[in-house]
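Incident log, support desk, overnight shift.

02:14 A customer reports that sequence design results differ from what the structure should imply. Their input is reproduced verbatim below. On-call engineer (initials T.W.) acknowledged and began investigating.
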């Protein structure tokens, strides 16, 4: 493992002009970014399709998600400083900028995980039960498991219309009055919103971990002198991916909590 961190792979660009290496590495990173965009576009497209067909939950984001936005923005700034430092031959700035970005990235991962845990505590997630044989089973919660203040912390929507809660009952308004009783539907409907939300959160964390791993590799190589000013493109493409992950999460955050 230490050998992998400190010794880069053989330079396949040896003998070529530096511009060839720069263009090639940037192109590879753009292809990776495009693939990730297509993956998340598929998931968000599924959300848009299901939104008009199912009972949907709108939930206020936990404050810790807002803190995560701040952390990811700050980490992009330290990443910029790190890349600029390496380009200028300032290895100390490059090294400490990379380390700061890594620490901020880890803190951001914590906010994402903790944010989901807080929503799970409200009933957005799954429930673990024991079978007669003593085995543990996981069941995704129905909409009726949600807790909190209806209308403030969360609300249900069907076909673009917010359900009205009266006592323990949920109604779909029709005209100026209360219409269909949707209580049974609320109590029994699978919480597709929560399931898709958890997929987006943890899939983003997984992709962020790849960026953190590459960042750690680059930090160690700067520390050991294996990554120098002439190799700035390695840290630059790391920064491309890192900034993209921050932009992606900001989009997902707005999409999840304010668009759909």
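02:41 Re-run completed on a clean worker. Output:
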């Amino acid at each position: 493992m230490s050998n992998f961190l400190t010794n880069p792979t053989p330079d396949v660009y040896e003998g070529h002009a530096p511009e060839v290496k720069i263009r090639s590495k940037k192109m590879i990173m753009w292809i990776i970014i495009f693939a990730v965009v297509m993956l998340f576009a598929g998931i968000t497209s599924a959300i848009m399709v299901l939104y008009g067909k199912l009972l949907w939950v709108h939930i206020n984001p936990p404050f810790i998600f807002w803190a995560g936005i701040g952390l990811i923005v700050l980490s992009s700034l330290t990443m910029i400083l790190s890349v600029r430092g390496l380009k200028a031959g300032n290895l100390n700035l490059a090294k400490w900028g990379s380390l700061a970005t890594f620490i901020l990235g880890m803190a951001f991962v914590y906010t994402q995980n903790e944010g989901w845990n807080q929503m799970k505590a409200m009933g957005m997630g799954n429930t673990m039960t024991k079978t007669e044989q003593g085995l543990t089973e996981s069941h995704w919660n129905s909409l009726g498991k949600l807790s909190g203040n209806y209308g403030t912390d969360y609300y249900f929507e069907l076909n673009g219309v917010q359900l009205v809660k009266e006592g323990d009952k949920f109604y779909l308004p029709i005209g100026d009055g209360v219409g269909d009783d949707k209580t049974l539907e609320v109590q029994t409907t699978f919480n597709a919103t929560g399931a898709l939300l958890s997929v987006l959160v943890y899939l983003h964390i997984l992709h962020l971990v790849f960026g953190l791993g590459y960042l750690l590799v680059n930090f160690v190589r700067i520390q050991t002198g294996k990554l120098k000013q002439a190799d700035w493109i390695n840290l630059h493409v790391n920064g491309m991916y890192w900034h993209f992950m921050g932009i992606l999460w900001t989009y997902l955050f707005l999409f999840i909590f304010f668009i759909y």
